Amino acid sequence: MDVDVALVRWPTDDVGRRELAVRRRPRLLLVAKNADPPLCTDYLEDWVRLPVSDADARARVKALEGRIRELTPLVPSLVDLGTLQYRSARIELSPLQALLLRPLIDQFGVVVSREILMQKAWPDADPNRNILDVHMVRLRRRLVSAGLQIRTVRSRGYLLTESEAENRPHPDGFGSGRDG
Questions:
Q1: Domains of the chain, each with CATH number or no CATH
Q2: pTM, whole model, 2 decimals?
Q3: How many other C-beta atoms lie within 10 A of the C-beta of residue 146?
């Protein structure tokens, strides 16, 4: 995972800080000499007081990058024609399973509607709800060995996440930044 940390002057560029936070971009706040330090509750953010040596700033950026790598979940990927790769697991999927999984991977950790899944898997048909349910049950079973789970979110759709046993706790004061 490549981490690009933005440097933001604090408090003069609070708007930039908030925009970066909304876009989930990592940032190191350069706190003015006489300013109160910011309250950083996001694991994608840290701060250092000015003036700061280049070596100290680089060390703080490296520490922030390491924390981000540790706390950000890996995203599964589809390689070849239907091979799921996640961490050290590789699982061969049917073409239909790959079609169903693609939008879930593209929106990893975010709910994907039933309508989108049906449109991706059956673009020229109008399958009934039960067909999708049956295929999602089969796909769930295939993903267990990779440490992934598909959760049903009532009245909204499906959510692909790490299995509960795979989730790592976040240190006190830092959230995952994801709902759900």
A1: 6-71 (no CATH), 77-166 (1.10.10.10)
A2: 0.56
A3: 19
